[in-house]
Amino acid sequence: MKLRYNFRVYPSASQREQLARAFGCARAVWNDALRLSRDAYDKGLPRPSTTELSRQVITQAKRTPQRAWLSEVSAVVLQQSLRDLDMAYGNFFASKSGTRKGPSVGPPKMKKKTARQAIRFTANARWSITKSGTLRLPKVGEIKLRWSRKLPSEPSSVTIIKDPAGRYFASFVVEVAAEPLPELNTEETDTGIDLGLSSYAVLRGRKITSPKFFRRQERKLKRAQRKVSRRKKGSNNRRKALRTVAKIHARIADQRRDFIEQETTRIVRESQAVSAEDLNVKGMATRHGRLGKSVQDQSLGRFVRTLEAKCERYGRTFLKVDRWFPSTQLRSNPRCGCLTGPKGRKALHVRVWTCTECGTRHDRDENAEANLRAAGRKRVAETRHEAERQNACGEHVRPRKPRQRSKKQEPTRSHTAARGGAGGNHPHL
């Protein structure tokens, strides 16, 4: 399993200038290669290979006065830009053919100088981590790095990222092995997770309060954006105001990420099996109108993906329940099982409802969690039963010994005659 470990780096002024030059060179190589690929498509020719693009936009371009500055950065950075372009085309073709999962992906586009930029160094670039703890990059030098934890293994590549807030990060790709936690009693520790807005998540026996990080910073963000609109375009004051807005957004993102990491780690430690609903977050944000901002603030999709990855790493069972499963309307008591819960968009304000069949009073979120947990148990039982059935109906585990066949006696003349063979008295002859 491959994971990314991100650390904050603090380049000096000259190193920031060199990194900016590397960002620009990688962007120029991407755009030149994309332009050649589009020209070949317009002429009806096959798309040039990565080797051919490297020869034209890197090797030959360095010899021209217009692209001579490509020699000022590491060649590995430029090669990785071409690999990213090839991967972008591969994702586009896979999306067109239907072999790629997830939403459809369009063709690659020209890159512009944006607030977020990144370059990647592989082992061929001969980058290293010094004994003093600094990060040594080719043609950049040793960059101060703030270590918050140790790397579990030797990293295969490092990506230098500059975010819109002006911060620099080093992202290491490392290979880690699965670390199964001690197994817990499934009947006592399995849980369903009902995600929502009023409560971030409802689990078995406890609720996670919605943090609402964006809503807390919304007034401060509005004031900062108002200052941006009053500054003249292209001025230094407008650039500073934009940096202030980016810092507020970065703080919100960091708080949300830290919250999700802590809560998912706690759930994995306390639960042996987790059942979560397969939500359509984009559809929820569009369908609920004024609540769309709150849906995006929750970041429910990131929460589910992080939880699934941690369950896989630490040996926990993770189950996704179909999004059309009526977890809210279904009565959690198996003796009743009727669909009398609140239905429709207008029923979102109904947090407590009473079953019309048995008269039991239910909490909306707790009832949904119990139904999701029961659906997860049912899926586990069906999977186990199917595996046992396959074992019962499959091939024998041990091959049977060949049966000893007795030697048959040769048929005598009387036996042949009795069967109507040659020499016998057949009644119809």
- What gross morphology would you assign? globular
Percent of sequence in beta strands: 15-25%
Contiguous uncertain segments of 5+ residues: 412-429
Mean pLDDT: 85
Instruction: Write down the secondary-structure element order.
Output: EHHHEEEEEEHEEEHHHEHHHEEEHH
Q: Span from first to last CA?
A: 82 Å
**What's the total helix number?**
12
Largest sheet: 7 strands, antiparallel
Helical content, roughly?
40-55%
Cross-sheet strand order for the largest sheet: 2-6-7-1-5-4-3
**Overall SS class:** alpha+beta
Number of strands: 14
Give me the oligomer status.
Answer: single chain
Radius of gyration: 32 Å
Topology:
Layout: E1 2-10, H1 13-42, H2 50-59, H3 75-97, E2 117-122, E3 128-129, E4 135-137, E5 141-146, E6 157-162, E7 168-175, H4 186-189, E8 191-195, E9 199-203, E10 206-209, H5 213-216, H6 218-230, H7 236-270, E11 273-277, H8 281-287, H9 292-298, H10 300-313, E12 317-321, E13 352-354, E14 361-363, H11 364-393, H12 413-418
Parallel strand pairs: 8-11, 11-12
Antiparallel strand pairs: 1-5, 1-7, 2-6, 3-4, 4-5, 6-7, 8-9, 9-10, 13-14
Helix pairs in contact: 1-2, 1-3, 2-3, 6-7, 7-10, 8-9
Could you explain the architecture of this structure?
With 429 residues, the chain is α+β, with helices and mostly antiparallel strands. Helices cover 43% and strands 16% of the residues. The protein has helices at 13-42, 50-59, 75-97, 186-189, 213-216, 218-230, 236-270, 281-287, 292-298, 300-313, 364-393, 413-418; strands at residues 2-10, 117-122, 128-129, 135-137, 141-146, 157-162, 168-175, 191-195, 199-203, 206-209, 273-277, 317-321, 352-354, 361-363. The strands form three sheets. A seven-stranded antiparallel sheet has the order 2-6-7-1-5-4-3. The chain has a five-stranded mixed sheet with strand order 10-9-8-11-12, sandwiched between helices. Strand 6 and strand 7 form a beta hairpin. Helix 6 runs antiparallel to helix 7 and helix 8 (281-287) packs antiparallel against helix 9. Mean pLDDT is 85; it is low at 412-429.
